[in-house]
Design brief:
This protein has a nine-stranded antiparallel beta sheet with strand order 3-8-9-10-11-18-15-14-13, covered by helices on one side. A seven-stranded antiparallel beta sheet has the order 4-5-6-7-12-17-16. Helices cover about 30% and strands about 25% of the residues. Helix 18 packs antiparallel against helix 19. It is globular. Strand 9 (about 170-175) and strand 10 (about 180-190) form a beta hairpin. The protein contains 19 helices and 33 strands. It is of the alpha+beta class. The structure holds alpha-L-fucopyranose. The site of alpha-L-fucopyranose has 13 residues, from loops. Alpha-L-fucopyranose binds next to loops.
């Protein structure tokens, strides 16, 4: 299987003879295909566990694959209830001023130490809506495309439903009455539509009626003209206008527009379907309202229809491959010829099959990001872009006390940096409403957001004790700066990341208070997400702020803002760093030593400093890292899907590959659905992204300034290779290893600076060469080699074994 990674033909050494086999023949099974021998049940549970997702960032769809009744449930990220179209929507801000509310809470915390989060909610939170979340709203299902096939049997032969994540194409095929029927679906980012093709290998063998059904929480009119179905109306909740159009293009046969808005095709050789959506949402505060979608949508569908299927598919495949193909991972897996649900169920029984599933799961995380986060669209929400309900779990919103952040953890490392643009734009867009909230709730400058947000600038604190989390903006800002670290995109730093970081810091300058106990700066009120009392200076708050001001100082140096360098340094000198070892050897979750060793909560927020932060590492702070391990052990390996995924990252950062792999195994065995979606439960996509991030952290880390190669390689991954990973400094890294030992690293230098690479094998003999075999001088110090690079040049670091 290792040979799969090689571009071009595969060279097999058979005795003395050299045989060249074309790649296509050498592959026994497609390594990047999820496949099933039955349709997904036409139920919400069938959708959640078995439907197969496609998406172009703005739109998503899931394929059920019913033989007689096909269903594509589809979404558009902008279709939400709630927001400014609803009476009294106020961005989560208070409806009237609450003079002294913050001061009273602070006073109580100073006096009592920790107070009930419910008291904080009562004083600072927003009152609950009736019905719940009326103003906040929820992400909506757009509708269902349904195809009814009158001539097909219930139980055909040779049924297969699949999703090729390397091509970005889903398919359904079966044989009925001696005719092979095939359906292909993909979501095209270049064309902005979802495309399908229904075909049969006997001429005239395709007949169906297509209709679009929408949920009942909106007005709807349906019409059909010239094979174009249109359903349009407005959400009852907020009056948001929506429209969907489907163009049915038949090759041969007859096409009929029906009075009920459906379209019937009979006797066709094949039929192409082009589906688009639009709303009048615009990401602009405060109205969040744009033009009626009709003209835009019509033009988009017309344009796609004019291109024709072959061109649409070719453009889609090129666009998808340009992202997907950047990273290759080979753990020595070999996919057995079993459906993916069986592969998952049998996980743990056959190492080659297990490795194949892990490779697939890894790339699936990348696929899901490609499908749910493209520049110009909203970021991936709790379910990416896929949602079948009108009242989805947690509104399918943007939770920002870890979930949205986790969605983007793999973006930089797995070479999909541009897919983080929606996150950056979203954070930027929270600033304007967030200024109002900062001023009203805290009398502070800058901007703030709390625990969860929607697409309408909701920056206030919600009606739940968990929802007091003003640190979310600071955490998000760090992710923007990390984008700069990975890309070294100065323009992005100057225009986007730095202004946001600065304004975030401004809020914290006003919010932080002197702790009378030790004179240190602490956040107050402050709560470790979703657990324990509300106190002053909970560890996560302090750690996030340490990173914010440390990064701000560094960023200010980069852009030459001396005043800000000094200001950040001043804060850092007084800031409580949120790192303490407690009475049972744990890394404390609070400033006070009150951690309960029996607490197994899914949030492990006080280990922010281990991941995604960088304050604590076995490399730099062994005692704190040991304490972090004590805390992590106490929390156990159990948890929701995303919690397990976070723990993969933690153990990777703690350099324990086998434990990280154990968490991956747990996630696959207990938190992964048949369609490989992560389950909280229920389905929540952050765990997919978190797992892909964690697997990458096992192979390459760069958060400490050194490129740590294979820092947490588990025994189960003894032989393998990975290509195309990104490291901070805009480097691209390929690695190969055998019997658990690095054999070769390749690096394409981004910034041309001095590079430090670490691996135990570097204690032995090493050779560094550049392009055309030019030897490169390097210094070796224990497990680290250091050499100077030129921008864009390729380097090969070979471990010599004799
Ligand atoms: C956080 C988590 C929950 C869930 C929700 C969407 O609040 O604590 O487990 O993931 O986000």
């Amino acid at each position: 299987m290792m040979t799969r990674l090689l571009a071009g033909p595969i060279v097999l050494l058979l005795g003395a003879a050299l045989t060249v086999v074309p790649v296509a023949q050498a592959q026994a099974a497609e390594p990047y295909t999820l496949w099933y021998d039955e349709p997904a049940p036409d139920t919400n549970q069938g959708w959640e566990t078995r439907s197969l997702p496609i998406g172009n960032g703005a739109m998503g769809a899931t394929v059920f694959g019913g033989v007689q009744a096909e269903r594509l449930q589809f979404n558009d990220k902008t279709l939400w209830t709630g927001g400014p179209g609803v009476a009294d929507y106020n961005f989560g801000n208070w409806d009237a001023p609450r003079p002294g509310a913050l001061e009273a809470i602070r006073e109580r915390i100073w006096k009592e130490g920790g107070i009930s989060p419910n008291d904080v909610l009562a004083a600072l939170g927003l009152k609950s809506d009736t019905p719940r979340h009326r103003r906040f709203g929820a992400y909506q299902s757009f509708g269902d495309l349904r195809l009814a096939f009158p001539d097909l049997p219930a139980d055909p032969a040779g049924y297969r439903r699949d999703l090729d994540i390397a091509r970005g194409v889903a398919g359904v095929s079966f044989t009925a009455g001696g005719v092979r029927h095939t359906r292909e679906y993909f979501a095209s980012a270049p064309a902005g539509v979802i495309v399908g093709r229904v075909a049969a290998d006997r001429p005239g063998g395709v007949a169906f009626t297509a209709r679009i059904a929408v949920p009942g929480n909106r007005s709807a009119t349906a019409s059909a003209k010239d094979g174009r179905l249109t359903v349009k109306g407005a959400l009852h909740s907020n009056g948001m206008a929506y429209e969907t159009q489907l163009q049915v293009l038949n090759e041969g046969g007859t096409r009929t527009d029906n009075p009920d808005g459906s379209v019937t095709v009979t006797g066709a050789d094949a039929v192409v379907l082009i589906l688009g959506t639009g709303t009048d949402y615009a990401p602009d505060y405060p109205a969040y309202k744009g033009d009626d979608p009709h003209a835009r949508l019509t033009a988009r569908i017309d344009g796609a229809a004019a291109q024709g299927y072959t061109r649409l598919l070719a453009a889609h495949r090129a666009d998808h491959a340009a992202l997907f193909d950047r990273v290759k991972l080979d753990l020595g897996g070999a996919l057995p010829a079993v459906p993916t649900d069986d592969l998952l169920a049998r996980y743990g029984q056959d190492p080659a099959a297990d490795r194949a599933l892990e490779q697939l799961f890894y790339q699936y995380g990348r696929y899901l990001l490609i499908a749910s986060s493209r520049p110009g669209s909203l970021p991936a929400n709790l379910q990416g872009v896929w949602n079948v309900l009108d009242a989805p779990p947690w509104q399918s919103d943007y939770h920002v006390n870890i979930n949205l952040q986790m969605n983007y953890w793999p973006a930089e490392m797995t070479n999909l940096a541009e897919l983080a643009q929606p996150l950056h734009a979203y954070v930027d867009g929270l600033r304007e409403p967030g200024r109002v909230t900062a001023k009203q709730m805290y009398g502070a400058r800058g901007w703030v957001a709390h625990h969860a947000s929607n697409i309408f600038g909701h920056t206030g604190a919600w009606d739940h004790p968990a929802y007091f989390f003003p640190e979310s903006g600071a955490w998000l800002s760090l992710q923007l700066y990390d984008h700069y670290r990975f890309t070294l995109d100065k323009r992005f730093l100057k225009r986007t990341a730095y202004p946001i970081m600065k304004e975030t810091a401004q809020f914290w300058l006003d919010f932080l208070q002197n702790d009378p106990r030790d004179g240190k700066l602490v956040a107050i009120p402050s709560r470790s997400p979703e657990i324990g009392p509300t106190t002053a200076g909970a560890s996560m708050s302090q750690q996030i702020l340490w990173h914010l001001f440390t990064d701000l100082r560094e960023a200010a140096e980069q852009v030459g803002d001396r005043r800000q360098v000094d200001a950040a340094a001043k804060v850092l000198a007084k800031l409580d760093p949120g790192l303490r070892i407690g009475r049972w050897g744990q890394l404390q979750e609070w400033k006070e030593d009150i951690d309960d060793p029996a607490e197994t909560h899914r949030h492990v927020s006080h280990l922010f400093s281990v991941h995604p932060g960088r304050q604590v590492s076995p490399r730099t702070t062994p005692e704190l890292a040991a304490a972090a391990k004590v805390s992590l052990e106490a929390r156990t390996d159990a948890g929701t899907g995303w919690s397990k995924a976070w723990k993969i990252n933690f153990w990777a950062r703690l350099l324990d590959g086998d434990r990280a792999h154990k968490l991956l195994r747990d996630q696959l065995q207990t938190s992964t659905l048949a369609n490989l979606w992560d389950t909280h439960p229920p389905f929540q996509i952050d765990g997919n992204f978190g797992a892909t991030s964690g697997m990458t952290e096992m192979l390459l880390q760069s958060h400490l300034g050194v490129l740590d190669l294979l820092p947490a390689l588990p025994g189960a991954w003894a032989d393998g290779r990975v290509a195309g990973l990104r490291a901070r400094g805009a480097h691209t890294v390929d690695l190969a290893w055998a019997s658990g030992r690095l054999s070769e690293a390749r690096l394409t230098s981004g910034d041309g600076g001095v590079v430090k690479l670490r691996n135990d094998a570097f204690r032995g003999e090493v050779r560094v060469t550049a392009d055309r075999g030019r030897p490169v001088a390097f210094t070796a110090d224990g497990d680290t080699v250091t050499f100077r690079t030129r921008p864009g040049e390729n380097y090969r670091i070979a471990v010599i074994t004799r």
